[in-house]
UniProtKB/TrEMBL annotation:
Domain of life: Bacteria
Designated name of the protein: 4-hydroxybenzoate 3-monooxygenase
Matches recorded under NCBIfam families: PRK08243.1
InterPro entries, per the entry: FAD-bd, FAD/NAD-bd_sf, RIFMO-like
Length: 392
């Protein structure tokens, strides 16, 4: 089998890349180890930055998002029983975000890819990437019980944090930067309308809580829990009681709406960056190259930024013969990646209570939040970072 761009992984990075290349008249093949149902059900991100929304629209993949997505013009910070709203458009010159689940983005992109004739192979596991330093790198993969080889001009590893593409970068040129946090998020989905019309990020002495949503009838919420927690250890009423406590406020108008919990899971929290993001003709994109803790809602959006950068660079090379942008891919992406790492780390450490936190640490967190609530420039800094860093 032969193609111009071999894409490993049909998460948001791989699927969007296939779409962008198709629109630019460049052929690709997507290999995905899981089946279609699994990819379409995996619960993950839900916040699309302004730049991601714009890219999906330009790619012709936004029809359902524009019908069903929920535009958000702000978030609420809750701390010390206070409420502070961060007004995105007022602080950023008109930028905002969209609540539209990653699963729905993937469903839309899969439908488009298959309608355009694919090729998108499910249950096709990439085993190894070979020949990164040659003009024709190859992906060895297994599909329907048979081993095969996909010969390419370029390989893009969009295969997430446990994928194989990263191994194509030799150990002596790879550098890994990481931090593991001593807590995770217990996430729930519940069949009850959201209690607030925007996301609420709460810092509390008992730990962080986040109130979010998937749709006008489905609540998504998270609680900080110790690393290694088993979701089954938490009863449904216990979760609602804890959310109630951590979201407490002096505002008498506030109430938490409870309803049947339909899903519970625990996500570990870590920051991880693999440098460089390119070796020869093998490129890494999305979680294959970097992970952020979900507090800043950046993971999916970073993946989008990477594949847009690659698709534009390749299109420019084909149009002008200049490979300057392809050469600069890793550097260009990493600038944005480190800004997202910085913001996600800052949000995480400001809002979560570390097991070894002292009263001094608590006061510093409250002072940071008070600064945002009382200074327009601190407020604007958060709003700019949350709504997204500019694409290349
Ligand atoms: C609970 C949770 C909440 C989150 N919330 C947010 C949020 O609000 N906003 C945000 O921006 N981000 C969020 N994220 C992060 C976001 O979901 C990820 O950053 C995003 O999925 C990255 O997309 P990707 O395409 O790079 O990787 P993935 O989505 O991980 O896709 C990788 C794909 O590659 C496939 N694959 C792996 N190995 C192989 C192989 N050998 N051969 C073939 N295929 C392979 C996998 O099956 C998978 O389909 C959240 C994550 C979690 C877990």
């Amino acid at each position: 089998m032969r193609t111009t761009v071999g894409i490993i992984g049909a998460g948001p990075a791989g699927l969007l890349l296939a779409r962008l290349l198709h629109n630019a008249g460049i052929d690709s093949v997507v290999l995905e180890t899981r089946d279609r149902a699994y990819v379409e059900q995996r619960q993950r991100a839900g916040i699309l930055e302004q730049g991601t929304v714009d890219v999906l629209r330009e790619a012709g993949a936004a029809a359902r998002m524009d019908r069903e997505g929920i535009g958000h013009d702000g978030i609420e910070l809750r701390f010390d029983r206070r409420r502070h709203r961060v007004d995105f458009p007022a602080l950023t010159g008109g930028r905002s975000v969209m609540v539209y689940a990653q699963t729905e983005v993937c469903k839309d992109l899969i439908a488009l890819q298959l309608a355009a004739g694919g090729p998108l192979l499910f249950e096709a596991e990439a085993l190894a990437v070979e020949g990164a330093e040659t003009q024709s790198p190859r992906v060895r993969f297994r599909h329907q019980g048979r081993e095969d080889v996909l010969a390419c001009d370029y390989v893009v590893g969009c295969d997430g944090s446990w994928g194989v593409a990263r191994k194509a970068v030799p150990a002596d040129v790879s550098r890994v930067f990481e931090r593991t946090y001593p807590f995770g998020w217990l996430g729930i989905l519940a069949d009850v309308p959201p209690s607030h019309d925007e996301l609420v990020y709460a810092r509390h002495d008992r730990g962080f809580a986040l109130l979010s949503m998937r749709s006008p009838t489905v609540t998504r919420a998270y609680l900080q829990v110790p690393a290694g927690t088993d979701a089954a250890d938490w009863g449904d009423e216990e979760i609602w009681d804890e959310l109630d406590r951590r979201l407490e406020t002096d505002d008498p108008a506030w109430t938490l709406k409870r309803g049947p919990i339909t899903s519970k899971s625990v996500t570990p929290m870590r920051s991880h960056v693999h440098e460089p993001m390119r070796h020869g003709r093998v490129f890494l994109a999305g979680d294959a190259a970097h992970i952020v803790p979900p507090t800043g809602a950046k993971g999916l959006n970073l993946a989008v930024g990477d594949v847009v950068t690659f698709a534009r660079a390749l299109a420019e090379y084909r149009e002008t013969g200049s490979d300057a942008r392809l050469e600069a891919y890793s550097e260009t992406c990493l600038r944005r990646v480190w800004q997202a790492e910085r913001f996600s780390y800052a949000m995480t450490t400001m809002l979560h209570r570390a097991p070894e936190a002292t009263p001094f640490d608590d006061r510093i967190q409250l002072a940071q939040l008070d600064r945002i609530a009382s200074s327009r420039s601190a407020d604007a800094d958060l709003a700019e970072s949350y709504t997204g860093f500019p694409l290349d």
